[in-house]
Write a structure and sequence with these properties.
Distance between the termini: 19 Å
Oligomer: single chain
Number of helices: 14
Number of domains: 2
Number of strands: 12
Shape: globular
Length: 338
Amino acid sequence: MEQLLKDFVRHSVSWAGLMPAVRSLFAGRAAIIMFHEIQKEFRSELATGTSISLFEHSLSWLRREGWEIVSLEECLERVLRNDRSHRYAVLTFDDGYRDNVSVALPILERHNAPFLMYVPTGAPTRTLQAWWLGLRELFRSQDDVTIDAMDTRFHCPDFQAKVSALARAAQWVHEDYHRAAMLAPTFHKAGVSLSALNDRYFLDEREIQVLSRHPLVSIGGHTTSHPALKTLDCSSARAEMVDNKNYLQNLTQKPVCHFAYPYGDPEACGPREENLASDAGFSTAVTTRPEQLGALHLNHYKLPRIFVGGFDSEIAFQARMNGLQRAFHMLLGDHQAA
């Protein structure tokens, strides 16, 4: 019901020509935008990333609407000095997917758009326990999937059923991140190799090295093994950050100044992790809180990001960037979400 109300408000505002007024009242001066995969075969990958058409539209719309796509450093500097000559967008990509280079990079080059890629050590070293890729492969390849740890059997013979089942299984993990390890027997029984999926989907060390020398690219940290940091003891969480930073700096021979918390929600990171990111020598850390940036109370170690992908429409992206999501939450009195 809430989603239906959001869609109704979004379309009503657009049709009524009120978007400029909403933008002036509710939109921030800057936004950090989050992508993962930019998928050539969007339906085949069960709509888990961002389609090429939506990615192309996002960048074109930002340029057309007067947003300047800048580095994270430049964005924060302009926000802090209250530069109101433009709105500023920062493009970020999590995990180091191959299609960020094969599909997204030519589009980014065409727009001369700088971007930041957050890379966990386990992706290029092929040790990442990317349970989300394992689940996707299960539902892509089978119409009947049993996940013993969930005590659930899914029958999903078509695209929509597969998408729904995958979302349900992923949500089960997100409710308790310790559950990710419980999927290993299911993957083994189904012949799903996470190492092979690492090879298929993630850039390797040589490719990361080459990419890091591109003039539009910055490489950021994303931990060694992509855990929910809040679930670890302090020493282990610190090591995940520091070891990853050192690994990437040795690999690229460049400073690694920026960090993204894996998962990035309140169950995965909090004040302790903010302090650890600062102590590790990072100058910023990003979350997945879906907000824009404002100069007041700007915490460099709790920066919000707006995700673009999945079944987002072009109108939904525009509304989010124009502040309609914030207006909606304020209308409902949900000030924390706004």
